[in-house]
Design a protein that fits this description.
- The protein folds into two domains: 128 residues; 121 residues, 3-Layer(aba) Sandwich (Trna Endonuclease, Chain: A, domain 1).
- The chain is 41% helix and 19% strand.
- The protein contains nine helices and eleven strands.
- It has a six-stranded antiparallel sheet with strand order 1-2-3-4-6-5.
- β10, α8 and β11 form a beta-alpha-beta unit.
- The longest helix has 17 residues.
Length: 259
Amino acid sequence: MSFDLPLLEEQLCKTLCGEVRIRKTPQGYLQIVTPFTFTDGDTFQLYLEEAAAGGVRLTDYGHTLMHLSYENDLVKFREGTRGKLFEQVLATSGLSEEQGKLVLNSSLESLGTSVLQFGQALTRVYDITFLNRARVASTFYEDLKEALYSLVAPEKIQPNFTLPDQGEADSYPIDYRIEGKRAPLFLFGIPSRDKARLATIILEHWLRAKIDFDSLLIFQDQQEIPRLDLARLSNVGGEMVASLDASEDFHRKIIKLAA
């Protein structure tokens, strides 16, 4: 098949130009209308302002972060792994944030490229919210810590705990030791198969050492753990929570076991 490249280029330019236009809003703002949308169908809000030295400035007037705040905690969005990803998106896209507004300076000659660049950046910012639904290990541990400390007093929690006066204790650390009602509570976060296997080894070691404790295992997604690995972990572990999204189950079991 042979293509008429000039004709294809002409059709592509017509289509793109037909999808992007500038309108003046009733408030007097210059809005760049594009086909870019969030997953719920709301369109990206992109506006044009004059800048110094004959340049132009693109801004969302704070709409993007306001839109994300409907279903996301923006304080959490700016912390930990999410915060680092957000800053990385801004840095690599050339955007900056000014009191909640996202802005990008451009020249008139580069306006078309800048509009595409801005739209791509807003898409990448929105994609960070998917960490709430499909957590990577790093954000899983951050969310686990937040959930735990919201239910248990900090003075009752010892993170990265190693048992004192026990040989090779450093090789068998506990994610969190919590003062328990019956015995110390050893809590482990399980974001992956590898961590499930490691937790099995650690729990089995302390059981064989005749250490008295209760245990609570919090999974990122229990269904993602292979059946045999889950069976081995079940043999040595105590209470389990299938996912951090099962917040009521997490709350009930923490209250049941923690002092």
